[in-house]
Design a protein that fits this description.
Largest sheet: 11 strands, mixed
CATH class: Alpha Beta
Order of helices and strands: HHEHEHEHEHEEHEHEHHHHEEEHHEEHH
CATH architecture: Alpha-Beta Complex
Number of strands: 13
Strand order of the largest sheet: 1-3-2-4-6-5-12-13-9-7-8
Helix content: 25-40%
Length: 460
Amino acid sequence: MRPFELTLAEAAAAVGRGELSPVELTRSVLERIGAVDQELRAYVSVVGEEALRSAARAADEIATGRHRGPLHGIPYGLKDLVDVAGMPTTASSRVRADHVAEEDSTVVTRLTGAGAVLLGKTHTHEFAYGLTTPQTRNAWDRDRVAGGSSGGSAVAVAAGAATFALGTDTGGSIRVPAALNGIVGFKPTYGLVPTHGVTSLSWSLDHVGPLTRTVRDAALVLSALTGHEAQGPTGPDTTRTHGEDLGGLRIGVPDDYYFDHVDPEVETAVRRAIARMADLGAELVGVQTPMARYVQATQWGLMVPEATAYHERTLRSVPELYAPDVRVLLEAGELVSAGDYLRAQRARALMRQAWMRVFGRVDVIAAPTVPMTAAPAGQNAVEWADGTTESVSDAYVRLSAPANITGVPSLTLPVGRDHAGLPIGMQLMARPMGDATVLRVGQAYESAHGRLGAPAVVAA
């Protein structure tokens, strides 16, 4: 196995044993970027020389007994919404073409402290305001969308062009591209990972989290992001392997909403995965999705005016620099009244209360991450079996938005493929600060049933 193909945990173990140098690992990943990124376009920019210097420093520190932990010497990609001092933060937009960050974001400070090696900045849908990342191609099929808005980060990890990456998630922007590219994506509890120094889309919905090849890897990154190298965010060590036993855990299976307007192949794969978790000892409990009819209105009622407020000055001074799809959404936000925004906040409060009642009965809710696999690039809408038509973006955000509105932790992991060989993702959610629980369940499933095979580009 080539170094760029290693999971984070595998690479960290090899580095720790002295079998793999951080320089060798970083060089392998940089060569991989050179081989595939012209076609995939996951990266906005790559800082290869600086990455090799950082890797050499890590190697020297480890050799002299100053090993900082599992991320030491591990190369990663960073969504281009996240500040690194002295580097541009373009948000994949002409509006930010000349913007250079003055200081590191909190998450970069923590990753640097853990010894991680920055490879470069990855593409996002402009200002994270979209679910496709149109400039980036899916790692499994170049003619399909990458998903968004953290599409660059997801494709980089899936293609071996980063050992792990960071993304942001406002309505599914970590989990959607992770699911469409066959990797793991984790949106932590709201507020658990600091967003200081991260370009905002919607302050009350924004999250920062990892995209990785395994659930185990996501747990390792989360510990560094939360500043808890030894102890996880909720007390128990989120990096500890729990094995395959899910005895005593109650897994909620929605009777509605999450399985409405879902591709049959997606439903079959996710229900099969849920049944496999029951085989590991979990008790399956049917649940209703609280206030499902209000999800879309609440998500948009919060996000649209908050995004417009953030962009108020540049929207008035340089509107022509925004892509048409993003400009339309930002201009629409100017039409949302204060009363409508407050009603959305009230709906969010009621939705949180209702979800907490559900989590009084179950430990985890399991459902599809997205209702369909990666759509062909340029496809604007999907027609369901009952004749209902839905935009591609609305379809992708529909099942991920509730976790943003309520702030609960949500993990996606691959559980199969459709007839075209495209990945299918399952979403696991728990009560706020139940991050360790979803990681435990995800690791148990992954341990018992293995990882999804790599896309063809990785084997090339």
